[in-house]
Amino acid sequence: MNTTIRAEAHDQGQDFWNVHATIVTREAAGGLLHGFAALHSGSFAQMVGLLARMPEADRADLVIERSGDRNYGPEEALELYGREDYPL
Question: Which domain of life is it from (predicted)?
Fold first, then answer.
């Protein structure tokens, strides 16, 4: 939330990780009924952590759909999981 009461800056880093996200199969990603195909749902940070901790064979066909953004594949999830600003 951007406030001007105390001239506080908008914290984009926190928002990046707190946006709602779901884990779906690549096949279901972006489809008309993809909301019903969600295997897991939560904050983007939670979904990155969950996908990153899965065995490689289990995560190979999955993507993270970040609300209002785009899809992130397993390779990107692993990179994000290793970032210094990853919150969990």
Answer: Bacteria
* Span 3-13, average pLDDT: 51
Give me the helix-helix angle, 74-81 and 44-53, nearest 10°: 110
Q: CA-to-CA distance for 21 and 4, rounded, in angstroms?
A: 28
Burial class (CB in 10 A: 0-12, 13-18, 19+), 59: buried
Amino acid at site 30: G
Predicted structure pTM score: 0.78
| Burial profile 61-73: b = 16 or more Cβ within 10 angstroms, e = fewer | ebbbbbeeeeebb
